[in-house]
Design a protein that fits this description.
alpha/beta; five-stranded mixed sheet; globular; Glutaredoxin
């Protein structure tokens, strides 16, 4: 997962045509550590449909305030700079819940894609 450490890189990544899921975490968050073991598998499973970026909320507080990131870890799916769906809560997230969110993000992205 690509770690983003500044706002201009964040805006560039989420502004891309490709579906991008931003994962907001911190180093001190136990729920963030809980998801770490299975996130590489999820990233590999969804590699053909989306890309992940990681943002440490403590490194980019202004951006996180702008995006209303309160609970962590939080997930927001973007495409072409537009927020599509988000999975933000203060509760611990299970692998299944994250997969459901990712499936929803892929479905929403497909709905707004230009039809061939």
């Amino acid at each position: 997962m690509e770690k983003i450490t500044n706002e201009s890189d964040f805006r560039e990544r989420v502004g891309a045509y490709e579906l991008t899921v931003a994962v907001f975490k911190t180093t001190w968050c136990p729920d963030c550590h809980f998801i770490n073991p299975f996130m590489p598998d999820l990233e590999a499973s969804y590699a053909d449909r989306l890309r992940f970026i990681e943002i440490d909320r403590d490194d980019m507080p202004d951006l996180c305030s702008e995006l209303n990131i309160l609970g962590i870890p939080s997930f927001i799916a973007f495409r072409e700079g537009r927020e599509l769906v988000r999975f933000v809560s203060k509760l611990r997230k299970s692998r299944e819940e994250i997969e459901q969110f990712l499936d929803r993000a892929v479905a929403v992205s497909a709905e707004i894609a230009p039809k061939a």
